[in-house]
């Protein structure tokens, strides 16, 4: 045991040895009555009444007195022990819900102090705030013994937070811990040490994780939301107690709320970067209105590197920054230079999102799950066994506007350090928002490498093939996608709405993918309308969407007719053990270890150069069907085919990588085994509004 852990344990033991502060009187009830601010889910409350839970799509039985289990994922443990589900029982509103809430709280209170799960002050703070916020619902009519035990627990558990902070947790979860300390401090004024401890810690805690532009150090829209929600609750608690608001707290809220607004799409949900999901727009509105009275949207987020481009009804959000610092990088994705695009309230081009489901968390962190260049068998950054990022790539950006139009130029060197070139992406959005164009290239590549460009589509988008490219239909508009590369449409998945949804992705390559075999039984079953993944498999990625297998073949591939190849941007097929923590960690370390230096930086603005070189004044014309390969590389057919071989010059599949199925897997027929892939040329593409 490290000295740090020993010291933390000693402080906690001392706090619990004197849990109610000597001879101080235990109050009969809170001096200030708080109200939980956020709406609950009556369906969740109904399940709790029946001793059932469902978290991240996984149903579980709720056993009396069981508050921990080694098999539980961390996210479920935090939810269960945090008692935020009290708001779901309150939303249900029935007497059975009130009785159930009191019973479950009573089960927790009956645990001896030394046996309670108090080592994580963020969970403890969340629980204390939930108890006080729902006190009137479950405790006001309880007997004297219940009241005494509850009030004593407020004191004891608040002392555990004071003893463990600030070292025990960091990031936005540190705010959860301090929120609980604040709530007990204002509701139990006979114990002024809790409020004093909060006031000593809050300024430093905020300064250590919120940039000057209001963005969070994690660069995650989800964590930005969590920060703003915690700030909103703190402001409410201080308001109810009629106490002055610390200047640092008010300033942080006024900076963080415009930053959160900037990371929303037209539908009101969050952009899907770095471990985020859409979130409920109504809840987002509620949180934002509580945190700040202003409705300002941040025009730019230079500290975090997100770029927001608007024109007409169109909105583009781009990840143009380096990964978060190591201490804040547990949710960081290798999606640098990826973007999302929406028109009005309809998302069109998206990233795949995030999930806590076993087998999905790690898979969704890598480039194939983003609308960005995917270098097959390589990752632009290394994710360590503990989930943090090591040796992040250097990222540059230059964003200028002229007469309402936007030019954005971005680069990262994550692949250059592997000899595969500097990834360069330039985007142009017209003033009216009806034309989005892009140029993609690998600069200074020392060797050819198999790659593709992915544009994941929102599940609500309908795709129609045309002689020139593809039409993307929303409920109100039609957009045409063109490119001078080879365009294919393949399967994808979307996890932005809390569940696994099938969708499509546009894939650009410089050579055609190899022809597939005749349809096999799995493909025929799917084509005939086979049902989605059964409920019992909710914890695993669907077949073809999960991590790579071990047999050396392309994992997860289902035989389909040519032109209907199945692609999982997440990787190969999930095996039985793919959902295990050990299997995922081993796979990620083997497949995505990337060496290199870390020099996060931002390029200086270069407006003249950018404005002089937009990605073309007209949408790029597609190459004729018979000439696309030749125009793509300018090499002989054998060399062009070899461009998409799995392991460069060997022509053998790379069994260590979680390779998307259906896209340049294996060596195409006729390609020499020792052919060197040619260096790639630039790819141009355009998305244009054609009808409304």
Automatic annotation (TrEMBL):
Sequence ranges of Low complexity compositional bias: 517-553
Localisation: Cell envelope
InterPro entries (UniProt xref): Chondroitin_lyas, Hepar_II_III_C
GO molecular function, one term: lyase activity
Region span, Disordered: 512-679
Biased composition (Polar residues): 656-666
GO CC term (a single one): cell envelope
Bias (Basic and acidic residues) ranges: 573-584
Pfam short name (any one): Hepar_II_III_C
Domain Heparinase II/III-like C-terminal: 298-511
Protein name as it appears in the record: Heparinase II/III family protein
């Amino acid at each position: 045991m490290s000295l740090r852990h020993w010291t933390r344990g000693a402080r906690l033991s001392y706090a619990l040895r004197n849990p109610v502060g000597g001879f101080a009187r235990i109050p009969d009830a809170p001096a200030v009555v708080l109200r939980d601010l956020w709406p609950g889910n009556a369906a969740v409350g109904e399940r709790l009444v029946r001793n059932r839970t469902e978290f991240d799509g996984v149903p579980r039985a709720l056993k009396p007195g069981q508050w921990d289990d080694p098999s539980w994922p961390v996210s479920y443990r935090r939810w269960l022990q945090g008692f935020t589900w009290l708001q779901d029982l309150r939303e249900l509103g029935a007497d059975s819900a009130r009785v159930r809430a009191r019973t479950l709280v009573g089960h927790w209170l009956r645990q001896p102090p030394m046996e309670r799960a108090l080592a994580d002050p963020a969970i403890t703070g969340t629980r204390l705030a939930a108890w006080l916020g729902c006190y009137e619902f479950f405790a006001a009519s309880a007997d004297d013994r219940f009241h005494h035990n509850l009030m004593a627990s407020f004191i004891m558990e608040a002392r555990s937070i004071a003893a463990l902070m600030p070292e025990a947790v960091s990031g936005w979860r540190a705010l959860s811990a301090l929120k609980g300390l604040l709530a007990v401090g204002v509701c139990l004024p006979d114990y002024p040490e809790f409020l004093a401890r909060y006031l000593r810690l809050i300024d430093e805690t905020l300064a250590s994780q919120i940039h000057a532009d209001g963005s969070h150090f994690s660069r995650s829209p989800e964590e930005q939301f969590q920060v703003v929600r915690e700030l909103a609750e703190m402001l409410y608690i201080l308001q109810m107690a009629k106490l002055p608001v610390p200047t640092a707290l008010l300033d942080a809220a006024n900076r963080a709320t415009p930053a959160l607004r900037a990371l929303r799409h037209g539908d009101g949900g969050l952009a899907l970067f770095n471990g985020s999901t859409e979130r409920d727009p109504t809840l987002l509105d509620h949180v934002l209105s509580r945190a700040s009275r202003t409705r300002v949207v941040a025009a730019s987020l230079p500290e975090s590197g997100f770029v927001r481009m608007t024109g007409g009804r169109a909105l583009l959000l781009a990840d143009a920054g380096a990964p978060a610092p190591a201490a804040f990088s547990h949710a960081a994705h290798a999606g640098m230079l990826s973007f999302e695009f929406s028109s009005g309230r309809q998302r069109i081009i998206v990233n795949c999102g995030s999930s806590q489901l076993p087998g999905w968390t790690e898979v969704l962190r890598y480039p194939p799950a983003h609308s960005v260049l995917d270098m097959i068998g390589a990752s632009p950054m290394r994710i360590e066994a503990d989930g943090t990022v090591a040796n992040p790539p250097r990222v540059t950006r230059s964003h200028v506007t002229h007469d309402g139009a936007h030019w954005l130029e971005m680069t990262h060197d994550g692949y250059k350090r592997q000899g595969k070139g500097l990834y360069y992406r330039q985007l142009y959005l017209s003033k009216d928002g009806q034309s989005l164009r892009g140029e993609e290239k690998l600069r200074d590549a020392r060797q050819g490498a198999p790659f593709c460009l992915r544009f994941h589509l929102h599940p609500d988008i309908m795709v129609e093939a045309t002689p020139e490219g593809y039409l993307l239909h929303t409920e109100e508009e039609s957009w045409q996608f063109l490119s001078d590369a080879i365009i294919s449409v393949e399967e994808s998945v979307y996890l932005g709405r809390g569940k696994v949804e099938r969708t499509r992705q546009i894939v650009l390559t410089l050579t055609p993918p190899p022809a597939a075999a005749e349809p096999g039984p799995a493909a025929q079953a799917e084509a005939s309308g086979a049902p989605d993944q059964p409920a019992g498999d909710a914890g695993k990625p669907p077949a073809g969407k999960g991590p790579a297998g071990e047999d050396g073949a392309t994992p997860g591939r289902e035989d389909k007719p040519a032109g209907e190849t199945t692609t999982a941007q997440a990787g190969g097929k999930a095996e039985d053990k793919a959902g295990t923590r050990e299997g995922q960690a081993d796979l990620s370390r083997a497949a995505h270890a990337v060496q290199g230096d870390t020099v996060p930086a931002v390029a200086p603005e270069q407006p003249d150069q950018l404005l002089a070189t937009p990605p073309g004044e007209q949408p790029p014309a597609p190459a004729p069907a018979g000439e696309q390969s030749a125009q793509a590389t300018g090499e002989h057919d054998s060399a062009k085919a070899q461009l998409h071989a799995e392991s460069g010059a060997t022509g053998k599949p790379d069994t260590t990588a979680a390779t998307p199925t259906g896209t340049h897997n294996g060596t195409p027929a006729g390609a020499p085994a020792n052919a060197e892939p040619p260096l790639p040329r630039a790819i141009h593409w355009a998305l244009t509004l054609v009808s409304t």
